[in-house]
């Protein structure tokens, strides 16, 4: 779901990144990522707007993205 939404042209203004917890422990700790999957949405200034498990379907995931646009 993440990759499909990432490729959708209507979200071209959003930067999507995935995190390898084994190799990026400091980043995971910084954003309090303790389990997979977790979605973290940041503002342009880097403030955490959302940090939780993603919804189970694409519509729910898109609803979260659109909430913070």
Can you tell me about this structure?
It contains three helices and two strands; from the N terminus they run ααββα. The model has no long low-confidence stretch (mean pLDDT 94). The two termini are 19 Å apart. 32% of the residues lie in helices and 13% in strands. It has helices at 2-7, 25-30, 58-67; strands spanning 39-42, 48-52. The longest helix has 10 residues, at 58-67. The protein has 69 residues and is α+β, with helices and mostly antiparallel strands.
Roughly how many Å is the radius of gyration? 12 Å
Q: Outline, from the CA principal axes?
A: globular
Low-confidence stretches: none
How many helices in DSSP terms? 3
Give the terminus-to-terminus CA distance: 19 Å
The amount of beta strand, in percent, is 5-15%
Structural class by sheet pairing and helices: alpha+beta
Q: What is the element string, with H for helices and E for strands? A: HHEEH
Tell me the total number of β-strands: 2
Mean pLDDT value: 94
Strand order of the largest sheet: 1-2
Features:
3 helices, alpha+beta, 69 residues, single chain, two-stranded antiparallel sheet
Short structural description:
The chain is an alpha+beta fold. It is built from three helices and two strands; from the N terminus they run ααββα.
Task: Itemize the secondary structure elements and their pairings.
Layout: H1 2-7, H2 25-30, E1 39-42, E2 48-52, H3 58-67
Antiparallel strand pairs: 1-2
